[in-house]
Amino acid sequence: MKNEIVQQFTDNFDEYSQTSEIGVEFWFARELQHLLGYTEWRNFGKVITKAKIACELSGNQVVDHFVEVNKMIELAKGAQREIDDIMLTRYACYLIAQNGDSQKETIAFAQNYFALQTRKIELIQKGISDWERLQARQKLTLSEKELSELIFERTGDDQNFGLIRSKGDKALFGKTTQEMKDQLGVPKGRALADFLPTITIKAKDFATEITVFNTKENSLRTEQAISAEHITNNSHVRKILLERGIVPENLPAEEDLKKLERRVTSEPQQIGKNPDKLIK
Fold this sequence. Notes:
Layout: H1 3-15, E1 18-19, E2 25-28, H2 29-35, H3 41-57, H4 62-65, E3 66-74, E4 80-89, H5 90-98, H6 105-155, H7 160-173, H8 177-184, H9 198-217, H10 223-243, H11 257-273
Antiparallel strand pairs: 1-2, 2-4, 3-4
Helix pairs in contact: 1-6, 3-5, 5-6, 6-9, 6-11, 7-10, 9-10
């Protein structure tokens, strides 16, 4: 496909893009029909039906992406007529293009146009998720550092922090730290938290913050007292998770935080070197 044709199609699809009141980008199906080269609404409706099925099979709610509306169109001599139309999200347009006749030049273009944009959104969402996990891990590191220093200050033994943290893990997971490491395949010498999902990292951090606060507030000064506090806090956090249907010890391991951090750091540089990375 020639560059000038690609540019023309891009301008056409961009021109008909609209934004809803809540900031969601969408296209009207009647306009997309013509952009994709379909002359008959009936034939285009068959493609929409296939796209809805694909949407449902992908685990998404059809009503979130295909919103049926009525609108008025201008007829001759100033008359108007109400017609049915559908507001389509970018994802809905992508599914329609995927179920269209790829022999049509406009369909081939649309498949790539919407796939590119959908992939960008996926990358953004994944980037945000990765960033949140890194931030949660850094926060846990700080709270554990504060607890470690506090335990040493109160008990005079730098070995007590590891003991107290392990007791907290047993209360949170129902398993020892080593049992969790073995279950998740954590390499020897690495921290369990480096392989936990964000929700569990935040759970550990929350319990640790409470332990720090109450150790100071209640002037706890022995390993036994601080351990009891930490066990109680982790037990309560576990109870909340279980009540919400989250079993922390059953959650699968996530990507190694060290690898994740290297990837997140290097991706902006790689994208700068290879602009086509987003569509791969």
